[in-house]
DNA sequence: TATATATAGGATAAATTTGTCCGATTTATA
DNA sequence: TATAAATCGGACAAATTTATCCTATATATA
């Protein structure tokens, strides 16, 4: 559904949020280790997220990645997905036809419409806070 | 959402069905031209679909691809997707965690569950016939 | 039976995604 | 101020997906 980069990006952002709730800044190494992702590749993805103003980075010794508590409540899954994979997953045509539209629908257009709409709504409505909350209370798990 | 191969596969199967409704067998060239896909790559995909018993191929002069009318009513989108992309799109974890399950859910598990379920149901319920019907009547379009 | 027109399938190439490496820069602290 | 630990960013490499090419095989028909 999402690219590997996007999966890592979401996992990383959730983990950074979890730590930021306790005012703990995390280094790239820590993050990659906890979300089980390749370190250098994760670095690239975190850079993208910093550029898109989703997480903050602090350089130098004791530096790392963090996210403001206020932002944890504001940032939605959709913003992470859009920053890494773009919005074609919930905007584009299911058959990859560039000319497909409401006025000129492809054969699966209306079939996919409801699914894409549900996905879009879910991504737009789900905040980091919501995800972190249930992770903190042990209802969900980020890594085995 | 789907791979390019899967997009071409669905488009090709719909086009073959459309022609088979009028007992017209189509050559690879015809198909690729009408669905706007690379010829040789499309050949590989059609071979996969033949192997998965979704379409039939006839070799030799006047040969080509076709699909039995009865099958047009039976084959569901899900079978095409499964043959080419596998079922991870509506079965796997949204974050790519292999250990994610109902008992051990990832942070987005329940959020994705409804979306994946809707996608799965749609793919399992949508028959080729349904798609071809609306294409025949000009309500939808396969290519601009 | 020769020919032209198909699919089948293996080898290869191009493009994209995923992943690594390393030097430059930043910054806390001994 | 020297050092160590961190991010930044560019170049490169591996893996996967997408796409091409060519030969073998099948088959309708002149």
Detailed description of the structure:
2 copies of one chain form a homodimer. With 144 residues, chain A is mainly alpha-helical. Helices cover 58% and strands 4% of the residues of chain A. Chain A has 8 helices and 2 strands, in the order αααββααααα. A two-stranded antiparallel ribbon of chain A has the order 1-2. In chain A, β1 and β2 form a beta hairpin. In chain A, α5 (77-85) packs across α7. The longest helix of chain A is centred in the N-terminal third of the chain and has 17 residues, at 4-20. The mean pLDDT of chain A is 97. Chains A and B meet through α1, α7 and α8 of A and α1, α7 and α8 of B. The structure holds a DNA duplex (30 and 30 nucleotides).
Keywords, separated by commas or semicolons:
homodimer; 144 residues; mainly alpha; two-stranded antiparallel sheet; 2 strands; elongated; DNA-binding
How would you summarize the topology of this molecule?
Two copies of one chain form a homodimer.
Chain A lengths: L3 H17 L7 H8 L3 H13 L4 E3 L5 E3 L2 H6 L2 H9 L2 H4 L17 H17 L2 H9 L8
Antiparallel strand pairs in A: 1-2
The structure holds a DNA duplex (30 and 30 nucleotides).
Radius of gyration of chain A: 17 Å
Major β-sheet annotation of chain A: 2 strands, antiparallel
Q: From the structure provided, what is the oligomeric state, counting identical versus distinct chains?
A: homodimer
Discrete helix count of chain A: 8
Distance from N terminus to C terminus of chain A (CA atoms, Å) equals 21 Å
Structural class of chain A: mainly alpha
Largest interface, C-beta closer than 8 angstroms, per-chain residues: A-B, 40 and 40 residues
Share in β-strands of chain A: under 5%
The H/E string of chain A reads HHHEEHHHHH
Secondary structure tally: strands of chain A: 2
């Amino acid at each position: 559904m999402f690219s590997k980069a996007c999966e890592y990006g979401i996992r990383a952002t959730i983990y950074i949020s979890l730590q930021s709730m306790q005012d703990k800044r995390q280094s790239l190494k820590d993050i990659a280790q906890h979300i089980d992702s390749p370190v250098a590749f994760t670095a690239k993805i975190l850079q993208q997220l910093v550029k898109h103003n989703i997480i903050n980075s602090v350089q130098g010794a004791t530096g790392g990645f963090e996210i403001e508590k206020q932002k944890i409540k504001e940032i939605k899954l959709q913003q992470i997905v859009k920053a890494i994979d773009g919005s074609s997953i919930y905007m584009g045509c299911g058959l990859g036809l560039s000319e497909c539209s409401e006025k000129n629908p492809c054969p699966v257009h209306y079939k996919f419409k409801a699914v894409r709409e549900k996905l879009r709504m879910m991504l737009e409505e789900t905040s980091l806070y919501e995800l972190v909350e249930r992770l903190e209370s042990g209802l969900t798990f980020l890594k085995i």
